[in-house]
Amino acid sequence: xxxxxxxxxxxxxxxxxxxxxxxxxxxxxxxxxxxxxxxxxxxxxxxxxxxxxxxxxxxxxxxxxxxxxxxxxxxxxxxxxxxxxxxxxxxxxxxxxxxxxxxxxxxxxxxxxxxxxxxxxxxxxxxxxxxxxxxxxxxxxxxxxxxxxxxxxxxxxxxxxxxxxxxxxxxxxxxxxxxxxxxxxxxxxxxxxxxxxxxxxxxxxxxxxxxxx
Length: 213
Known about the structure:
InterPro entries: Pmp4 (IPR019531). This is PXMP4 protein. It contains 8 helices and no strands. By secondary structure, the chain is an all-alpha fold. The protein has a domain at 15-118. The longest helix has 37 residues, at 61-97. The radius of gyration is 24 Å and the shape is flat. 12% of the residues are buried.
């Protein structure tokens, strides 16, 4: 057994030595970016898909499980491919120009976003909308920091919260088809299903009655 373990330890030492080589850092960073995309995508999507599927989707247990696995796979694959593409293009641009400049990040991410997230499907839509809300917050803070807009005298968040909730509920009530399906499901559960009950069972215990009473 000891003799069989020695080649493995030698291989491990060689790999670790390779990982320490600075000249391979850019290529190795691309590979680790792909790895982190896979792991992070699974961590984020699996619990979300589990909850949303069992709360709102109908079908057999096998169908639900398949839906969860498919959503998790798609999210992980897309994040991994984007990280791989983005970091690869960053390294290529930096090597061609001899240094890294801010526009490299923008261009690399634009190309990666087009190639990986350009398909208009539910997973990509959720990710893009998630990023859009963060971008708007980030750009607003940056505009204040740079002096493009004055520092608010009062916290504007209460007004923002009021406008966001007022707008989304107006859309839900009168233009529901414009909202994303998962948001429609969540709001239907909260604001439409709560208008319907028959007895104590579907008033407090269940959301909807499953028998034919």
